[in-house]
Amino acid sequence: MDSVETTDTTVTGASKSTKGGVVAWTNSMSTMHLGFLANLVARGARTSSGFKTCHYNQCAKFLNDHFKLSLTGEQCSNHLKKWRKIWGRFVQLKNLSGALWDEDTSTIRLSDEHYAGHCANNKSDIPFLNNPIEHYRAMETIFGSTTASGKYAKSGNDPFSIDVEDESEMQTSPNVGESSAKAPPKKKAKLVHIEDDPLVTTLKDGFKMMADAIAKSGVDDDALPDNLWDALAALKGFDEDHVAHYYAHLVDNPKTAKAFMTLKLESKLVWLGSLLDMAGPRWKKGEDGKDFSALAAASPMSSIVAELQSSLKCSALLATLSSQGGDAVLGVNPQQATLLNRAAFGRSLENAGAEEHWFQLGAEEVFYLYHALKCISVCKSEGETRVSEGELWDHLCSASESFPEMYKAYAHLRSKNWVVRSGLQYGTDFVAYRHHPALVHSEFAVVVVPEGAEFGGRCGRLKVWSDLLCALRASGSVAKTLLVLTVSSSTCELRSPDCLELLVVHERTITRWIAQQCREQRCKPSREKANKEDQGHTRETVVLNYWGVILGFTVLSSLLVYKLRF
């Protein structure tokens, strides 16, 4: 909405809505008023003495036709006087010491300190400083050549000049004390170039060196290199999750990021692979940018499983085995469904009702809840009697020959409070999470290797070098450590659950040994020591640059004082 301003006039004419000599000028009216008069100046219609009465009458008619008013030419003339005063004040402010002029935005700019000090004593100047000047172009056209603006100060790069008058061209009257009727034409000022003083040249060079030293000493060592993410995304064979993880690592270590950008493609792959081999959880982050490590610490997996075990025992639930395979379906109430989800057991079915939720449990999960936690019972089909532990073992072993070693590995990890899920999509048996999969990425890709005559032909896993290499490269490409669980026994039979007590699990993590990495990269303590030495060297360099600037300034000041004195 346009702002409204009032202008007192000396005539009785008034606008359509206002009488008694006062006109309510809106911003739109002022814009068209100044624009009309500026067009007259541009066409050369204005005389050297200013606008004529006919010009103001034309402007009034133009405004009346557009805004349906009844303005007079004298009211337009009085309103122009107001803008002439504003232009005069603007010219004075433009010539303030330390003021900068922004031609693109038509703004007089002052530093914050200068602006605060000036406006404290000149509050009426606030609209003209650090704000675009309203109607500047139109005022410049109208008043620019008629208002005194003072002489422009010369900058330090302008050549020195003096006005030289040619006495031979001056004409005088034959009568002493009288001048001719026609004054001689003035000659343009001649530029007399003065050679730079050697001291001035020395000072210029010295101050330039000082400015360069200050700029160099103030360079931010923590600035990240350009196109860092593009360089990481261009590396083939890695998914987006672990590329984002390595990018976060480089953001936290800018010096490492700069060194990374100087490497060849092969060396970048080595660096990325070495980081992915580092142990440690990769926590997911929430909308606030913080990871879920604190949330996981507040709710340990062991307490969640214990709460689930207690709830299922009290309900005496019955799981139904599927007709094919070792899966089972379990119906629970909403509270128990929440606990199953938090403990990462099974998969919730989409056709679950509001009062009763159904979960599909894998073979290892069914037997773990039945045998280890002893919190559910199992039947082969709905309406039948419960099966015994031996019958359930036989059923699951008949569905999968490798069930004994798979369950032993699953129970081994679950007993240590790892969340174990299927690793089929990664080409492994299981994947192990430190906590719920919604909070953290999986750390281990698990391969179960049985050893012993009881396991028959299943003992040949990972004995061929190509199989081990494929598993190792596949797990590394998805930012996981290959964990091999060897399940061995030489005496027990696998026909009953009693064999679980005699099976022994050996844990082995396998990582790639990279000769180039071990040869060129130092151990972590050595790198930390080197980083501290680099930081100390950087601080010493900054201090030396600082004292160099002070010394240079002192020498130059002494030379200047000496020159001025002698």
Features:
566 residues; alpha+beta; five-stranded mixed β-sheet
Commentary on this structure:
The strands form 4 sheets. Strands 7-8-6-5-9 form a 5-stranded mixed β-sheet. The protein has a 5-stranded mixed β-sheet with strand order 10-11-12-13-14. A two-stranded antiparallel sheet has the order 1-2. Helix 1 crosses helix 2 (53-67). It is elongated and about 130 Å long. Strand 5 and strand 6 (328-332) form a beta hairpin. The chain is α+β, with helices and mostly antiparallel strands and 566 residues long. The chain has helices at 27-43, 53-67, 73-94, 112-121, 136-143, 198-217, 228-233, 240-252, 254-261, 265-276, 293-298, 301-315, 334-343, 363-372, 389-399, 403-415, 465-477, 515-520, 524-565, and strands spanning 4-8, 22-26, 100-102, 107-109, 317-321, 328-332, 347-348, 357-361, 376-379, 419-422, 430-433, 444-451, 481-488, 504-510.
Write the layout of secondary structure elements.
Layout: E1 4-8, E2 22-26, H1 27-43, H2 53-67, H3 73-94, E3 100-102, E4 107-109, H4 112-121, H5 136-143, H6 198-217, H7 228-233, H8 240-252, H9 254-261, H10 265-276, H11 293-298, H12 301-315, E5 317-321, E6 328-332, H13 334-343, E7 347-348, E8 357-361, H14 363-372, E9 376-379, H15 389-399, H16 403-415, E10 419-422, E11 430-433, E12 444-451, H17 465-477, E13 481-488, E14 504-510, H18 515-520, H19 524-565
Parallel strand pairs: 5-9, 12-13
Antiparallel strand pairs: 1-2, 3-4, 5-6, 6-8, 7-8, 10-11, 11-12, 13-14
